Amino acid sequence: MKNNDKQALMSVMTAVGMERILSTEHLCPPQTCEVQKDHNKDEWIASKIMERRFVPSHLTSVAWEGFNFVGHEIKIVESTDLFGATVWPSALVLCYFLENHGKQLGLEDKHIIEIGSGTGLVSIVASLLGAKVIATDLQDLIGNLQFNVVRNTKLKCKHSPQVKELTWGSNLEEKFPKSSLNYDYILAADVVYNHPYLNELLVTFDHLCREKTTILWAMRFRKENTLLQNTFFNNFQKHFDMEVIYDLPSLSIILYKARRRCNLTK
């Protein structure tokens, strides 16, 4: 990218409070993943994603961030005290993909579960697109997640989304019995970072994913977590076939589609 173009793009990102997404140099994922290198497409998609974010025009009693998706202004309350209660750029990438490919994916009336829902933005967008959605996260995040989901979907969706507690790898059969699972899609945004529960995350993917389930997973690559990320990818690819949908080097984000290859429990 030319210097003047780069400065212009940075100005746009700063204006909407997105400068944090460029703080990390893009890292290449494991070589087993085929990655497209179309930089023009990268810059175009990145700029379109930036346009979806807006900030309040005046101070309010409760701080929130705004996002334009599916013809709706979505207002999200975050919590800076909790890592999972922040809207991360990977969520915006996944929302953008769902909005632009919802008909192709046939999202209307499809059964969807999101793991690590955080603030609920991805689940909200999927619900507004007509899907039957379950948003999940840890107990500490459920209150804020429920608030955001209800606030932005009540009387607006074909199917009212559900919010459920899900601790990765814990009591999965009790809370989500395999006999009742029929998810068409599993959604995940930025669930792999520096935390000690990556094995549990893989077990959770395996438990929830049926033979015909498709995983849509937006991943931000962080320089400081290279070994951790590569280890998880190597383990994940032993059990799931992966395909790159978007590769966005300027955001250090790749969006993957994955399908089951075999069961971990076998």
TrEMBL record:
Sample GO molecular function, one term: methyltransferase activity
InterPro entries (alphabetical): Methyltransf_16, SAM-dependent_MTases_sf
Signal sequence segment: none
GO biological process, one term: methylation
The organism's place on the tree of life at top rank: Eukaryota
Pfam families in the record: Methyltransf_16
Keywords for the protein's UniProt record, in alphabetical order: Methyltransferase, S-adenosyl-L-methionine, Transferase
Protein name, UniProt field: Protein-lysine methyltransferase METTL21E-like
Lineage: Eukaryota, Metazoa, Chordata, Craniata, Vertebrata
